[in-house]
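Protocol step 4 of 6.
Sequence for AT133 ATPase (Balaeniceps rex) entered exactly as in the expression construct, tag removed. Do not edit the line below.
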Amino acid sequence: GESVPVTKINLPNPSEYPKAMGDEIYSPEVHKRHTLFCGTNVIQTRFYTGELVKALVVRTGFSTAKGQLVRSILYPKPTDFKLYRDAYLFLLSLVVVAGIGFLYTVVNSILNEVPAHTIIIESLDIITITVPPALPAAMTAGIVYAQRRLKKIGIFCISPQRINICGQLNLVCFDKTGTLTEDGLDLWGIQRVENARFLLPEERACSESLLKSEFVACMATCHSLTKIEGVLSGDPLDLKMFEAIGWILEEATEEETALHNRIMPTVVRPSKQLFPESKQATNQEMTSYEIGIVRQFPFSSVLQRMCVIARVLGEKRMDAYMKGAPEVIASLCKQETVPVDFECVLEEYTKQGFRVIALAHRKLESKLTWHKVQTINRDAIENNMDFMGLIIMQNKLKQETPAVLEDLHKANIRTVMVTGDNMLTAISVARDCGMILPQDKVIIAEALPPKDGQAARINWHYADTLAKCTSSSPAINSEDIPVKLVHESLEDLQMTKYHFAMNGKSFAVILEHFQDLVPKLVLHGTVFARMAPDQKTQLVEALQNVDYYVGMCGDGANDCGALKRAHGGISLSELEASVASPFTSRTPSISCVPKLIREGRAALITSFCVFKFMALYSIIQYISVTLLYSNVNRVTLENHNDVMCNLFFFLFAVSLNPAWKELVARRPPSGLISGPLLACNVLDVTNTSPAHHGNESLHDEHYIKNYENTTLFF
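Step 5 output, structure tokens:
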């Protein structure tokens, strides 16, 4: 479906203007505005006096975007964890040891002429002693307690086995919008252009002097907002822009549309509060200034712009208003109306992390009638515009973001940003939140696909010299790139002062044409901008291929694949993302990440303790029993009750250990078979006296007083 309400329109009719359409082929990506995606909820329709609307199904099942997402959730690549691999190996070796004991007991019993049924019982007893049946239950206990503690701090888990893996995380990927930063954008200000020169930035767009300006008229009309049950809905950016000018939007009712047999225009006008009281404006003046939106060319992510044709009430000629990506808008304007320092001003804003939108306007010829406007091609409108200025939007960092990232850095956990947003904005946010330190250099890798017989290539630029307004070339000689000096050891990574940044297109080209560079780039890559949902998943896989334990924290449907693929995925939203993610946080902030890692470490260390205790206990008991079976009297360890009590008390007491209060730089070992773990196996010897029966007159043929039993028990 769609993340926000979007206006969908019919495909243009090729018979009306065949020249403009040419041999254009339908593509769901290019023709997004004409496509209803699987999962879309239709909340409002316009009435066309009983005309039928024809729809053509282009994709079904797993071919749809929703289907691909569901498939990645249902059939993820299995995540391999060393602890579980080692556990299976260890149990296998215990089975081999048990087999040896089994054969020894059988042979020894036959030589001592023991009855057959006793041989069977004693031999099988050896196997159950060696391979502890309580091990799975004991291992699960730690995870269950950790899951309970996570629930108390508002983190819900649908895949408990992942808790242990979270104790190993050494890299966390973060989405930007809604995760590191606040969800919405706020209007920071506007910067108008007059006589091809930028005026000073203004904070408010709803001032009295600008009320009837073309700049405000563009903000009032150039959007795809609609009223749903009386409430303005649409793109959050459009919503903020329209709210900033304080105008009113009125739409035609179904009855009015049916009456005129064509769509009635949406009308916008200033609210009464905007008119100055001092002038004692008449009602007529208040109501006379209104603008009708005659035709809308919706926003296209391919074209990076949207355009509307509007008409001020009482005016003969119509106006065209356009808004979109500043570079695109500037290229469609008369060059004499674009300020000379346009690129420098724009870069200054994007470097500071602002989202910038440019506006343009053009008076249309008087010969363009209502009917002609309804059939005209957008290319005929979107040229020779007058550049009007910039709208600057701000995406604020969440309050807790910098502190959480600092905690992760102190614990030697690397942080990476994966976002669908603009590259310079993403780098700016990464600097603001401490992901990239002020003294660190950022190198942008711009990969170009093969074209006109030329091979694919990569251009390297320093992010701070990317300005197009500087005369010197910002390119770096590839020999100087520190990618050649990448350390094999992840521990040395903290020493590096370089960060790589790239966008989704470059990432795709590098994956396809520069496979050998991928490990080196992901080892130092910090910002990945304009990433598509499947590219986020590919990045997580690339990081896992260089032996990182990857965590992913996101909040939207576009993060689902990566959340599922990562070793530990944490969703900050209870909507689509929580379906795919092993963990969901009730509080929509990244403060849940260190909490999860701490609990993961506690559960992991508990698992190690339990495993060591159980394994040692089994081997000691196995050796003791084997030695006793070799005794001519065939005695065995007796009265295990107090030992079993101690065993279970120990196991569950260990599981109750909470996590340490802060993250430290040293991580737990990842596998069972590691030096520190094998070296520090300390046996918990319980001080118990040999078993003593209360009533010794009660004779039992199996109860034989002997020193071997007592000695081995001690």
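Step 6, annotate. The chain is about 35% helix and 15% strand.
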